[in-house]
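Researcher: Quick sanity check before group meeting.
Model: Go ahead. Protein one:
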Amino acid sequence: MLTTRHNRLDPSLIPEEQLTELAKFFAKPDHVALIDSKGKQTHIPEALFGHFARIVQLMSERKAVVFVPEDEAFTTQAAANYLGMSRQHLVGLVEKGEIPHHKVGTHRRITFKDLLAYETRRDQKRREAMDRLTDEVMAAGAYFPQVKDPSKDEG
C-alpha cells in the first residue's frame, strides 16, 4: 500500500530561497549536472531531467509531490477516486475483466500500472467516438450552421 509519509515530498522541507534557485537552474535544459564530493561531474540524463525539473517547479509553487510506483496496489475506492468514477462502477469493470486485479484476502487490489493502462484505453475510445461524431456532423453539413443575413430580412 502507498504510504504517503514515505512517498510525499513536501516543499516545506526545503527553504523557499533554495527552491527558487533550483527552479532557475532547472528552467534551462542541459545546464544541470551532479558533482560528487570528489569533484567528479556527471550530467543528468534527459529522461530524468524533465521529471526533476517538473518536481522542482511544483515544489517552488509550494505544491507537494507524491511518488507512486507503477506496481503500487490501490483499493477499489482509491482506484475509483483516481479514475473519477464510483466504486460500484469500478467493481463492475473489474468483474467484467476490463481492469485486471488481484486479491489480498477477500479484498480486490488494482495496480497503478493497470489503472494507467485502463485510463489510456478509455481516453482513446472517447477520442475515437468524438472523431466519429465530428465526421458525421460534418458529413451532414451541420458543422457550420447557416447564419441568417439580417440585411436580407423579408420583413
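Researcher: Fine. The other one?
Model: Protein two, sequence then structure:
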Amino acid sequence: MSRTLAIRGGTIIDSTGTRRSDVVVGPDGSVLAVGPGLDADDSLDASGCVVAPGFVDLHVHLREPGREEAETIESGARGAALGGFTAVLAMPNTTPTVDCAPMVTEVLELGRDTACDVRTSGAITVGRRGKALAPMAEMVRAGVRLFTDDGSGVQDDRLMRTALEYAGSLSHLTGGRPIVLAQHCEVEALSEGSLMHEGRVSSSLGIPGQPAEAEELMVMRDIAMSRLTGGRIHFQHLSTAGSVAMVRAAKAAGLPITAEATTHHFTLLDECCASFDPVFKVHPPLRTDADVQAIKQGLADGTIDAIATDHAPHTSHDKDRTFADAPPGMLGLETAFALANTELDLPIEDILALMSWRPAVIAGLDPVHGGPIAVGGAANIVVIDPEMEWVVSGEAMASRSTNTPYEGRKVKGKVRHTILRGQPVVVDGDAQR
C-alpha cells in the first residue's frame, strides 16, 4: 500500500503532554504530519476520542508452540490489537520452552505478519527448571531483552545471583540497552499445594491457601540481589501490600527495580473464589481488599510502573474442571484498558503512561512503541473512546478461549482504532487481520 492515512478530530495524549490535533501517517510506518485540519488519502474518525501511542503488554501467554487449542500467536495478536496493544511480550513457558535462539526465532517468525508486534522473553533457566542457566547471550543476539521463568520463580539464590551478573555483562550486545530479569516471585516451599490466597476466605472455604509471604520473601531476596549485583529486576504481577511497600522502599533507595500489576489484581478479590468457579483461579492468587488498595496506591504513586494483563487463555475443557484441578489463568488483553479506566481513580494520562510508554521502556521497545506522536516517529497508535460503555463477553473475544472473569460486566472505555506500522489493524472496533 502507498496511501496515507489521517486520524482526524482527536485529542493526542503522549509522554509530552496533551493537545488537540490531527495525525497523518504514511505507508512507511512513520508519522508524516501532526497539526490541525490535515488531509490524506484515507481517514479515520477520532472525534471525541483520545489518540495515544499504542499499548505495550509486558506479560502475555500466547500458548504457541504447544497449546494451540487454547491460543495461537495469530489469535492472541488479534485480541491484543482489539485491546489497543501494538506490542506484546510473550512468556517463555510454552512447549517446548523458549530457552534457546531457535525457539526465539520461531516465535518471532510466527508473529511477523500478525495484527500486533509480537516479541518474546526468554527463560532464565533451561526448561524453566531452575537448575542451569539458559544460553542468554544467544537469545539476546536473537532479539530477547527480558528473561523470566514466569510460572515459576528462580528458587536457587546462587543461581539467581549468577543470572543477574551474567545479564549485566550482555549490554554490549544491545548497544548499551540493559538486559532485564523479570521474576515471578513465589517461594515454592510455602506455596506448594495452594489454590487461592491464604486468609479468612480460604479458611472458611476449606481451600488450601498461599500466604502473602510466599511472594514477599522472594521480593525481599531479589531486592537484596539487585543491591548486591547492580542487576535490573522487574517484578511481575505484584499482588500483596507487603510487596508494594518493599518495592517502594527499594526504588527510594535508587535500586534499578521496576514492577507491574495485572488488571485482575486491582479489580477482583479472594472472595470471588467462594463461588468455586475456576475462572477466578489465578497465579498468584486474588488477594484481599487491603492488597487491592495497596496495588491501586502503587499504581497511583509510581511504585508500580506498568499495567500488564498476564493474559492466560485456557480451553473450556481445561477450565471447566473442579477448582482444585483447573489450571490458573484468565483472559486480559481485550479488557485491560476498560478495566483500568473504570476501576482506577486516575487521570487518563496516568493510565496511558502505565499501559504505553512506561512498559515500552522496560521492554526496550521505545521509542518505536510508546514514543511521542511526532513527525518522524513510529506510527504505532491507538484511538480510544474513553466514555463508551460496553459489556464484556468471552464468546465475543478474538481469543480461542473464553475464560474471562468479567463475563457480563459493564465497563467504560473502548478501543476504536489501532494503527500498527502505519496500517489500520482495528477500525471501528473490528479487526482487519
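Researcher: One line on it for the slide.
Model: The chain has 13 helices and 21 strands.
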